[in-house]
Amino acid sequence: VRAFTDDLSVLDSQIVKMGGLAEALLGDAFDALASSDGQLARDVVRRDVLIDEIESDVEERVYAIIARRQPMAVDLRQIIAALQISNELERVGDLSKNIAKRTQDILGKDLDPRLLTGLRNMTTGALTQLHEVMDAYADRDATAALRVWRDDDTLDATYNSVFADLIAHMTHDAPDVGLYTHLMFGAKNIERVGDHTTNIAENVFFLVTGNRLESDRPKRNCVTIPR
Amino acid sequence: VRAFTDDLSVLDSQIVKMGGLAEALLGDAFDALASSDGQLARDVVRRDVLIDEIESDVEERVYAIIARRQPMAVDLRQIIAALQISNELERVGDLSKNIAKRTQDILGKDLDPRLLTGLRNMTTGALTQLHEVMDAYADRDATAALRVWRDDDTLDATYNSVFADLIAHMTHDAPDVGLYTHLMFGAKNIERVGDHTTNIAENVFFLVTGNRLESDRPKRNCVTIPR
User: Which residues of B are less than 8 Å from A72 in CB distance?
Assistant: First the structure.
């Protein structure tokens, strides 16, 4: 039994480490964009590999633990949750890497301060949510997970306003359509981090309670373009 | 042992069914876009729920089978692969639903035939790959999975050319930036179906061989904007 507890706690610490890395990558990806820092952008791309490595390690451990320990009930839920959460965090890493690659393509371009503020608000919102859901995971706190799950709306609202700005820029600044396209996909990536965070919240809720959250959150009906 | 084989074959048939649904949704989402068919678009949105339901069912079965049967080695790989593949297919359903929702926002707009041809080529390419990987799954054919995994480049190349077209349209047709934005994200969604297909190919390969494919496929260095 002792060895099984050890197995689970290693799995746990790998997930927590992955969460920390994912947060750092998203934060740095935005900083690289905001300060047009090519070196930091390259660094984000490089560090994404670390997340992929932990994901592989988690998957190997999950197979080994199930085969060796025949876990049931909450133990099994912990193990499957680790697998699924590591998958979500790997995608957060990918999205951050993608922002960093786009940053490398638009280095030195002047960005409208209002747009940058919008993107910063999105990033801060996404990071807060991600941090809170990883805390909920570490604390096995279903109530906190539920709170994160309900709060994704705020990020969506910021995304909608950034998007409206970007459409306006594109419409009036034809030569820079390429730049704004990168920013659009960048904004979309941050919004998708919010979706992965919501998925993690569902995993944490199930892990703790054994009950599923409804898969469709109530979505605020949002204006026009973004989907 | 008989009951265990039954468990696995139900899991299998659920995955195959999900694959068929995902293909149908993507195909119909494109048809709705191409023929400006609002009813078909609504139908795609509605049917995506069926995929979500099968995903939940698969997850429940996976928990039950592991807890009851203590599977090991290839049996365990089959069960975990089913869980992971159902997750990828659920996302293909989401992406198709997203295309259908965007279609509802641009109903009746005239689309440049050349753009439509590009999007149709992407859809056909994505559907072929998805169909082949689901065949590889059904046949437990690692070679076929590897072939799908290597072929994602073709879809990426079509995506790049569609994207260049869209950027040109946006640059010269400012009032319709909103329309082209929807098409850009639509094209990106189809490209992402390709990524999920590649992930499924990795799952099938591991399920059959017990070995991992390298996680970074060799990517053709592509032109400018798309990432």
Answer: 67
Q: Taking Cα atoms as reference points, which of A13, A14, A12 lies closest to residue A57? A: A14
The pLDDT value recorded for residue B220 is 43
- pLDDT tens for A31-66 read 999 999 999 999 999 999 999 999 999 999 999 999
Nearest Cα residue in chain B from A98: B227
Rounded Cα–Cα distance for residues B11 and B31 (Å): 30
* pLDDT at residue A192 greater than cutoff 70: yes
Is B227–A77 a contact, with Cβ atoms under 8 angstroms apart?
no
**B217: pLDDT confidence band, cut at 50, 70 and 90?**
low
Do A145 and A162 form a contact (C-beta atoms < 8 A)? no
Closest residue, chain A, to B225 (C-alpha): A178
Is the separation of the CB atoms in B22 and B89 below 8 Å?
yes
Once rounded to an integer, what is the mean pLDDT over residues B163-183? 94
CB contact under 8 A, B70 and A70: yes
| Residue A48 CB neighbours (<10 A) | 24
B110: closest CA of chain A, how far (Å):
17
Tokens at A147, concatenated:
């709170």
Is A52 an 8 Å CB contact of chain B?
Answer: yes
Asked if B216 contacts A45 with a C-beta cutoff of 8 angstroms, the reply is no
Residue among B71, B171, B212 whose CB faces A177 most closely: B171
Alpha helices for chain A (secondary structure H): 2-34, 38-69, 73-105, 113-139, 142-150, 152-172, 177-209
